[in-house]
Amino acid sequence: MKKLLLLLALVCCIACSRPPATFNNPYGVTAMLNDSIWFGRAYVAEAAALNSNPCATGRFTVFLDSNVGYPGDRLRLSPQQVAMQAGEFVARQRITLYNIPAKRGSYRINELNQCGGIVVSQGNYALLGNGSALIEPYFLQPKQVGQVRIIKIDSAARTVTGTFKVTLTASSGRVARFRKGRFIAGLPKK
Length: 190
Known about the structure:
Blueprint: H1 2-16, E1 29-33, E2 36-46, H2 47-50, E3 59-66, H3 79-84, E4 93-101, E5 105-108, H4 109-113, E6 125-129, E7 133-139, E8 147-154, E9 159-170, E10 175-186
Antiparallel strand pairs: 1-2, 1-10, 2-3, 3-4, 4-6, 5-8, 6-7, 7-9, 8-9, 9-10
């Protein structure tokens, strides 16, 4: 009996020692934003569909959306809109990682941004109102370096898995520090 209890305790310790994976997460993206948990959905679009520059060919753009409110969030919906959106995902925050090469590797976000496709008013991170209206954009400053790492591209499951870390600044001086970011997103259908 003691051996069985020791074996059970050992199995529990081993099982609990593994870090949580994005795959077991009900969300497609998790990260730490200024030392608070940040989570949401992830999706991918072909960069060439969003950016006409030749450097966008064979690359993709990842959108990481969260429906979590933020300080000063003013989601103003009529009762009819609330009823229509009941249970639906309404983006309040969005990180956009532009022009990522469609292969495994680590990439500097400031270098990826040079290919273009960035809407200057939008930046890499934005606070949204009512799901799409831009409230406050955050930008990568010249001396700041962010990183996105593509861990796996699964062509059979049509998913891309990666990590990210980046510090972005709004024109108001507010800073958004994302770290320990993980995402899994579906690749666009061909």
